[in-house]
Amino acid sequence: MTYPKFLKVIKFDVCDSTNNFLKKNYREFQNEFPVLITTIEQTKGKGRETRNWFSEKNKGLYSSFAFFIKNKKNLNLLSLIAGICVSEVLNKISKNDFIIKWPNDVLYKNKKIAGVLIENVIFEKKIVSIVGIGVNLNHKQIDFPDELKESAISLKIITGKSYEVEKVNMKLSRLFFKWLEKLEKNEREKIIKKSNELGSLFKGKKILFHNKDKIIKGIYRGINKEGGLVLEQDNGIESIFFSGEIRL
User: Which one in 180, 189, 226, 233 has a CA-CA gap of 20 to 30 Å to 13?
Assistant: First the structure.
């Protein structure tokens, strides 16, 4: 297994945040896109909103892809394919079932094993997409800080095995660009179908949905053809959201 030949791979021992590095330096690599930045350790790993991503040395996968995305209408589905490829890779290497909590948090028995952070930059009328992926691979339960011990899990905790981070990264890279190719070919139905399959555990259930400063109660009805979350509220009206978070 190798990285895709078309992918420029840059490896660090330590990086503050792979997403931050690309946001600061994407101009330098624009003629070599797509680019993968990967590191053994992050000192300021970024999660969604203002959260951090716990990034202990030699324990997890901490990577970010940067590339031009051709059609801005695909941005909503880009978030979905990132979650899909992470869950598929974890399913294949561990023979366990992982689910997606919209749009792209990857869970095992309601505990988070992987997360995705997508940041887009407009550059010379082009869209540069930066897709950051963090996966808990070789953490023991004791490795997580107290605030994460109940909500986080790793592949090692699930299977008792250790994993080679680079091999997982290679598998993830190959699968990510296969799904990205489907997106660029406008195979949107396949992406929506797969994402709905991986998130089916939540379908039809009451959830709390955080959208900006609001907490909305409703029944999760899945993902629509544009990649939005469909929430049936108490009045029976279905609302579509393209940002926000399901809280368990």
Answer: 180
